[in-house]
Design brief:
Layout lengths: L2 H11 L1 H11 L6 H13 L2 E5 L6 H10 L5 E5 L6 H5 E6 L4 E6 L6 E5 L6 H13 L1 E4 L2 E4 L5 E6 L12 H4 L2 E6 L5 H11 L14 H12 L5 H15 L12 E3 L3 H17 L7 H12 L4 E2 L1 H5 L4 H11 L4
Parallel strand pairs: 1-8, 1-9, 2-5, 5-8
Antiparallel strand pairs: 3-4, 6-7, 10-11
Length: about 325
């Protein structure tokens, strides 16, 4: 298949992307980056962590995406008293059959909204970690596969610290993206007021895509070409987060631990998915730059020196991007 035919096939198979964006746009005003990242997560089988102050449509965006899909959806409100069984289920005794049978929890759905994920204690996070990484849940002595697609879309509030638990680094590394959700522009906020400023029923999304269409799109994403020079660029970027002083001396001592090889894999996967949504059969270095912050920011552990100097993970990533040679 030549390049033109491949691009035409991509254009045909990616038609549902625009349809989903249109549906979500009926409910969510602005937040285009957030919407794009949610769609990329569908294509990459990746989980997303949304961080922002309350009222920025994080939960609404996830519910809008779920409404645009012919798929199962569960919303789980994370609280300090949440138990693992409340999430994954448990074994219950059936007196008629005189044996224990599994009672599956709300995690057995295609899209999971883990609302305020940082409010749950370590035992719940541990149970969620198996589901996120292995896409299975163990009840008793048996492991049960989760449905396909399976995505955890989690939200957290960065301001409120009382009654919250910091997510462990191992769990953060399982998220494909960490998206920082910001305030809307003035014009967007005016549109929000016009759309939501009444007591009548709020608009909702309608299902426009089936899981089978997403699976076919994933097969096409796997065929998108990444030039070896671009692959080396991805590796150089990730490695530079581990020893940033090698590309910028001013960053010496700023990083305790850099991004893992999982970040390298995720950048490659997400770049292919981004090229697919842009109806292109190959990955460019600009695709990598567009994704770098959202994939790397939660994988860089800063030193005390960096925190004292007011240097954040995004600052490290920005300097690395400006220093690593682009192919």
């Amino acid at each position: 298949m030549n390049t033109q035919e491949f691009n035409e096939e991509i254009a045909q198979r990616s038609a549902w992307v625009s349809a989903v964006k249109i549906e979500m746009g009926k409910v969510v005003i602005g937040q285009q980056k957030l919407i794009n990242r949610l769609i990329l997560s569908l294509l990459c089988k990746g989980h997303v962590l949304l961080e922002g102050v309350p009222g920025l449509a994080k939960t609404l965006s996830v519910k809008a995406l779920a409404g645009a899909l012919h798929a199962g959806f569960s919303r789980i409100q994370f609280t300090p008293d949440l138990l693992p069984a409340d999430l994954v289920g448990t074994m219950i005794y059936n007196p008629e059959e005189r044996q224990f049978i599994p009672k599956r929890g709300p995690i057995f759905a295609n899209l999971i909204l883990a609302d305020e994920i940082n409010r749950a204690p370590a035992k719940v996070q541990s149970a969620l970690l198996e589901a996120m990484q292995e896409r299975q849940v163990t009840l008793g002595e048996t492991s049960y596969k989760l449905p396909n697609p399976f995505l955890v879309l989690a939200t957290q509030n960065p301001i409120e610290q009382e009654g919250t638990y910091q997510l462990p680094e191992a769990q953060l590394d399982r998220f494909l993206f960490k998206v920082l959700v910001d305030y809307p522009s003035r014009d967007e906020e005016l549109q929000v007021l016009e759309l939501m400023g009444s007591t009548s029923a709020a608009p909702s999304t309608q299902p426009v895509v089936h899981p089978e269409e997403i699976e076919l799109a994933r097969e096409l994403v796997d065929r998108i070409f990444i030039d070896p020079a671009v692959q080396r660029y991805i590796v150089d970027l990730v490695r530079s987060t581990r020893a940033p002083e090698k590309v910028d001396r001013s960053l010496a001592g700023m990083v305790r631990a850099g991004a893992s090889p999982r970040a390298t894999i995720n950048i490659g996967l997400a770049a292919k998915a981004l090229a697919f949504t842009r109806q292109r059969g190959y990955v460019t270095p600009q695709d990598i730059k567009d994704l770098a912050h959202d994939i790397l920011r939660h994988r860089i552990l800063l030193s005390y020196e960096a925190e004292a100097a007011g240097v954040g993970a995004d600052d490290i990533i920005e300097r690395v991007l400006s220093k690593v040679p682009v192919p």
